[in-house]
Amino acid sequence: MTLMSIRLCNNNYFFPWVEDAEQLQNRYLVVKLFSVTRKGKCSSQNGTRTRDLPNTSGTLYQLRTLTMSDDYGLREHCGVFGCVAAKDWPTQLDVAHTIYLGLIGLQHRGQESAGIVTSMGTENCKFKSKKDMGFVSHVFHEEELLKLRGNLGIGHTRYSTLGESDAKNIQPFVVETLHGLIAVAHNGELINAKSLKTKLLKHGVGLSTGTDSELITQLLTHTPECGEPNGINWIERIKKIMSETLISYSLVIMHDDKLYAVRDPFGNRPLSLGKLLPVSSMSGKKDIEDIDADGWVVSSESCCFNSVAARYYREVLPGEIVELSKDGVRSVYVAPRPEAKPPAMCIFEYVYFARSDSTFEGQMVYMVRQRCGKQLALEAPADADIVSTVPESATPSAMSYANTLGIPYGEVFCKNRYVGRTFIQPNMRLRQLAVAKKFGAITENIKGKKIVLVDDSIVRGNTMIPIVKLLRSEGAKEIHLRVASPPIKHPCYMGINIPTQQELIANRMPIEKMPEYFGADSLVYLSVDGLVRAVQEKMKTATGEGGHCVACLTGKYPVEPEW
Ligand code: SF4
pTM for the full model? Predict the structure, then answer.
């Protein structure tokens, strides 16, 4: 069948027939923009707008190239890392390599671009910087890392939102101020970016990237209204930003001989401190407090600490500013939350984004995923021969689900780790086999078996249909889907790229209809209460208080988004 489409602009296509657009689901992320009601007019959620459209009814869609992560639906935006050498400067510690290895460990948080900025830490010195599009290992080579020699530095890995995959947006951002250069790496998304942007533009500040991270960097260059009678005061400037924007950011800022690690008052994005130790002492039993530090690191996740010979030291508290220098780490401020609201760390760090070997709030992510599986088994048991998973982040949940119900756990898929991120679009015949390209089937564990398949989340549902089809074609007798998190129904305004509400499967159909839609025998999600219980049961925070954002599940945001 020939597809009827008319290209308009910016990948916007007009389809007189909806089915035409639906046929493109395997090749593109198909986003419905407008329904055309009559010539020259189209209706959107925001009202009616005039557009130059053909003289026929139909629908305007935007086609975005589909990537592997789009296929799954949720994307973390960034990972940040910083390192400062202790003891005498110039240091023998290889700061640039340490940051590079840190970013390799954070690669799962952003795969479109990477950057490192280092400094010798002397007053008004020049920064050295290397930033580019691509994986960390593609951006940095030995010679470049040698040129980045310094006593301290920061790094960043990034995903972009739509239309921002551009070299000018690569972090860390560096700007020149009256008081020397500053560099900023940011993870998160400012919920009131629009009004902050207006404020900066009114002050005559020109913005070149359209990113929140540039807003933060530019806000830092502003002198507070009270002035700075005793000279530049970066801590006061950071405090001012924290009072103006409450969520969502984890920042690493470099100026002169110091790094500042900053977490928003709600602690929405994670940030951990690590102590760099002599490699010879890594395997010893000595308390890390008793070992002299080679340096200090700060990272979005602690999973990369082992690879740089660092030990987990502690988390940066929600609202805290920590100063890192060659003399050690020092807490300088903790911002209050309005109306004494609880913290709101993103619960999806536990469910999906973070690596299983990271630690947040005194507990390993792996253990929390196990508890989610146990809770799911209590809430939604199934009679089955085997429990399995869609590799890989749901594996601890699936094993724990199996263990709780006394059902054997086994693998039904073998993942091809070398598929790559971007799809080269094959012809229609091979496109229909897209899932088979990613997963091979372990037929002996499937044929004639009643299978429980545990996944960590279902976002658009695009991937689940071919997965179930693959199990059926390999002879599965029954397929029971269990999801170790609740249905995602609402957008995220805090740094996670969740598809539009219309694209989310939980908004497109009632849960009762999903088994039939996926071709499964049953489907049950973990409850919101069950997820929160699994996360908070063994949580140990330094202040004793904890709390989590569940806004994409409930629609209740820690801070109301700005429209
Ligand atoms: S809305 Fe969802 S994804 Fe976004 S911060 Fe909250 S829990 Fe995380």
Answer: 0.84
